[in-house]
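Quick one, C-alpha cells below:
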C-alpha cells in the first residue's frame, strides 16, 4: 500500500516537472518572437526551476512508508537544502557566464515557480 502511495506521489511530482518543462518550452518560443537573448533568458530562468524540482522530487521520493518515516523526513530536508543551493549556484552561473537579460531570466524563473501554486489544478 505504501509503495503504491509513494509511486503515485512520485508520478505526480514528475508530471508536474513535465508540465513545467512544457511551460518552459512555451516561454522559450514566446521569447523567440522578441529576440534571441530574451528567448535564451526565459528558457534558462525557467529551466533552472525545472531542474531543481526534478532533483528534489528524485531525492524525496526514494523512500516511502511508515517504516521509513525518519528517512523520508531526512530526504525532504536534504532535498530542500540541495534545491536551495543548486538554485543559487545555477542563477549565479547563468548571470555570470551566459549573455542573458536579467529581467527576462527572472520572469522565466518566476513563471515556473508560480506554476507550482496551480499544480492542484493542473495535476489531479
Amino acid at each position: 500500500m505504501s509503495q503504491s502511495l509513494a509511486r503515485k506521489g512520485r508520478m505526480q511530482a514528475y508530471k508536474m516537472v513535465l508540465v513545467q518543462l512544457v511551460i518552459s518550452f512555451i516561454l522559450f518560443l514566446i521569447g523567440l518572437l522578441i529576440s534571441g537573448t530574451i528567448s535564451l533568458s526565459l528558457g534558462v530562468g525557467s529551466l533552472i526551476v525545472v531542474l531543481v524540482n526534478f532533483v528534489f522530487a528524485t531525492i524525496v521520493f526514494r523512500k516511502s512508508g511508515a517504516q521509513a518515516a525518519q528517512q523520508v523526513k531526512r530526504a525532504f530536508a536534504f532535498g530542500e537544502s540541495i534545491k536551495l543551493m543548486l538554485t543559487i549556484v545555477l542563477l549565479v552561473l547563468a548571470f555570470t557566464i551566459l549573455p542573458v537579460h536579467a529581467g527576462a531570466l527572472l520572469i522565466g524563473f518566476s513563471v515556473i515557480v508560480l506554476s507550482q501554486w496551480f499544480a492542484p489544478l493542473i495535476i489531479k
